[in-house]
Amino acid sequence: MRGAFLLTHAKQTAILAIFAALLLFAPLSSRADGKNYWCIESGRFAGKAQVKRGLNRALKAGFTGARVEKAKRGYTVLIGPFEDDEKSDIALVKIRKFFRKARHVQCDAPSAVPPPPAASNANLKTLTLEDMGYPKDIHISGVNPELSIYLPNYRQLKHADVKLNLKLSRVLDVRSSLTVLIDDTPLFTKSVKETGFEPAIVFSVQPSKADFIKVTLRGHLTISGDICQDLPTGNLWMVASNQSTFTVDTGGQSAGLISGFFKNYDTAINVVLADDTEDNLSVLPLAYHINRLSDWKELRLTMSTAPIEGVRNIIVGGDGSDITVKDKNLLIARGSVPLLKKTLMDIYITSFMRGPAYNREAGKKTNEVTFADIGVSNFTATGLGDLSFNVPLHYSSFSGIPKNPYLRLFMSHTPVSDADRAFLKIFLNGVMVNAVQLDNAGTVKSYEVKLPDELLKSFDNNLNMVTSYYVNRGECRGSMPNMTVSILNSSNILYDGSDTKHINSVRDVIGAMSGKALVMVDDKTMLSHAFYLMDIIGKLNKNIKDFDVAKWEGNVPESGYDFIVLALANPPSDKLDIALKVKQGRFNIINPLTGNEVFSSEYADGFGVLQAFNNNASKVLLLSYYKNIKPLDYLKTLSKDDAGRMLGNVVIFNNELASYEVGDKFRVEYKEVRPLIWYWNKYKLYAVLVLAILALFFIYFINKRVVRKENND
Fold this sequence. Notes:
Blueprint: H1 2-25, E1 37-45, H2 48-60, E2 67-70, E3 75-82, H3 85-95, E4 103-107, E5 124-128, E6 138-141, E7 146-152, E8 159-168, E9 177-182, E10 185-191, H4 192-195, E11 200-205, E12 212-220, H5 227-230, E13 237-240, E14 245-249, H6 258-262, E15 268-273, H7 284-293, E16 300-304, E17 312-316, E18 323-326, E19 329-332, H8 337-349, E20 368-370, H9 371-374, E21 379-383, E22 385-394, E23 401-402, E24 406-413, E25 421-428, E26 431-437, E27 445-450, E28 460-470, E29 483-487, E30 492-494, E31 498-499, H10 506-512, E32 515-521, H11 527-540, E33 544-551, E34 563-567, E35 587-590, E36 597-600, E37 607-615, E38 618-626, H12 640-643, E39 650-653, E40 657-660, E41 667-670, H13 676-712
Parallel strand pairs: 15-16, 15-17, 17-19, 32-33, 32-34, 34-38
Antiparallel strand pairs: 1-3, 1-4, 2-3, 5-14, 6-13, 7-12, 8-11, 8-13, 8-14, 9-10, 9-12, 18-19, 20-30, 21-29, 22-28, 23-31, 24-27, 24-29, 24-30, 25-26, 25-28, 35-36, 35-41, 37-38, 37-39, 39-40
């Protein structure tokens, strides 16, 4: 009986084990047809209203299989599934036109695969303010707040339909009004009583003879009718959503010139490599220069081996020296890639948007950068209260961190009466560094202000000049004595040279790149990843004069380049002064103050690594990977905001990224090769005991010899 019981018990255990295994592995084979299906996830939305707008955009684009799904944090729009990887990739390119953080996710097989996206009017292109370079909603305030948006007036434009989604302060008097102006000419005015407090302002604009169409939204805001009472409350404001849209109709025209191929309203370009040769290295600078031309919009670049329908394709391949535009594709022989690069540089230099950037006056001081050099035009604004003017100060404009920067501001304004008060306040990264009272002179005057070095916090600094005009209490009613202020783009920053040695983070190295740069690749498997890295550099920095390309031969050039980009499958640890030697084996990143591990490679299947370091006079950016090259695909989905979070000299990424300041705050310990300090920390107790015992034996031995000698004497 006991044997029978044991046998029965063994059978029960085996059955339970098999059942548990079936439960464990059931999800891996849950698809009835055995196929892997992929969906596309739009990104996370915090609220139901936001995800509903996202769903409507997906459905409007023709993705009939789009639906809302509950996510861990908030909601997401799920599109698909797609049986075919190629169809999924093509759909992802299209979806990223309006969902920048869209990505592939695995999903279950449906009862029926949704139909492909419905055909849409190819002549219509919808651009959001986010696409046009506004990463956040735009907040404007004051009695007469004003927002101006510039839409490029390309030759193929027939007309554009504009939809501005606004939110107004709820305490405004309904007699407050909104005015829309096109090229400074009023189009219409509506009261808040007509529009409500969350209006969608819809109107159309026609092309003009200018290079840009200026669309201006101007408010006349009041609460009580008493300006002096309303202004201090801070409640005179409105917000324009960055999901406001410009829907442009191109009429189906396609310019046959190279400049026309790039000067258009599309936000996606695909580079096609028709064959696999080492000469394909020459396409890498294209990723940078194409982004450089897109000052006013956020461009999405992809690389593939075949053209993608519905997207502008640059098809590289074949011998010869031809460059032709056919339909929406640019056909270029492999030998003509350098010529195309030069053409893009010429288009950039002669562009209206960037005209002043390379037209410096002859004989100008080396250490002087004007607002025009930075790409800023003359400012003029009229209003009451605070008028704000912003100038971006990028490290790349100074070829590094400017030393002892000094602002020389040229400004004019309408006279200020004796009864009123007006002030000029200078802010650097939100900190006021100077303030002066303005007088009643109406001519151009210069104001000189020292900019503290310690306030230059990163590659992307903000210089903010604010004029504040306060009228006498008795003048608040009736006609308003508005102030007009002009800041000239001949204003400049003087500085005593620049420093790159103290630019350590990956983000700041990318943002500081300027002058002559070089990109090197050691293996063709790294080509596409180097392409996407160049795309990221182009999104963050427009001030690099040129990129050379070269095959990695084992050494970094000693001179001739200010910045160097390396994409290496096998980086030589002995020749590069890098903080993390990925080919040296398993490692931990340690906080030396606490001894805690902040990162360990022990359980990682693989990840990508970006590092910044010095090489003689050059600053070097290295792209490599640990164990597996697949995580480098994350670069395809990296946004400009993501790149802005690369705050350490070592950045590790897979589906997410993490930054570490190795050397300054953290240290690396390798499992296979441990430093002597590691052995000391681990075995110091035993070492001290052994030394103590040896010392005791030594003392005993000496003492014994001394005693013996005394006895003999």
